[in-house]
Amino acid sequence: MYQHIVLPGETLFSISEDYRTPYQAILAANQIPNPNMIYVGQPIVIPGIPDPALIPYFIDVSISNRTLSLYENEQLQKVYPIAVGRMLYDTPVGEFIIVNREPNPGGPFGTLWLSLSKKSYGIHGTNDPSSIGHAVSKGCIRMFNQDVEELGSIVPNGTRVRIRP
């Protein structure tokens, strides 16, 4: 069972959007009598998301190096080249998890989309392979299609993703 820790400025509605989990399901799972009375630091159970502590994988993204590193049981398995957000569309820094996936989302998202626990952001393929290695996206982490397909075949939903500058 995954627990999100409430951050400043978050509401139950914004949390439900970030995790693509129905608002009512979060209310029910947490038995919250007044949804307007959540507080910073409060743990909120997100139903349907596996506990990342039970998943042996971890993804570390370096924006400045433009790399995505995959770890299994704390051992580096592979480093992939990526593209990151361009000016005015920064890639968000922080701790996230993969909450769901969509094969063949089409267009600039390539052959696979892995949603992060921040609304509108993900790790995805591309229809422009020459963009890899550059700061060109609207904040997402862009990979070669074959790389994101390989990554997606390895890591399950619930996998932790750390994005650092």
How many domains, as an integer? 2
> What count of helical segments does DSSP give?
3
Question: Mind summarizing the main beta sheet?
Answer: 8 strands, mixed
Q: Kindly report the spatial arrangement of strands forming the biggest sheet.
A: 5-4-3-12-7-8-9-11
Task: Determine the mean pLDDT.
Answer: 95
Instruction: Specify the CATH architecture of the largest domain.
Output: Beta Barrel
Distance between the termini: 29 Å
Describe this structure in words.
The chain is of the alpha/beta class. The chain folds into two domains: 2-49, Membrane-bound Lytic Murein Transglycosylase D, Chain A, CATH 3.10.350; 53-164, L,D-transpeptidase catalytic domain-like, CATH 2.40.440.10. 15% of the residues lie in helices and 35% in strands. It is globular and about 50 Å long. The two termini are 29 Å apart.
Helices and strands in order:
Blueprint: E1 2-5, H1 12-18, H2 23-30, E2 43-46, E3 57-62, E4 67-72, E5 75-81, E6 84-85, E7 94-103, E8 112-116, E9 122-124, E10 135-137, E11 141-142, H3 145-154, E12 160-164
Parallel strand pairs: 3-12, 6-10, 9-11
Antiparallel strand pairs: 1-2, 3-4, 4-5, 7-8, 7-12, 8-9
Structure, briefly:
Helix content is 15%, strand content 35%.
Features:
single chain; 165 residues; alpha/beta; L,D-transpeptidase catalytic domain-like; 12 strands
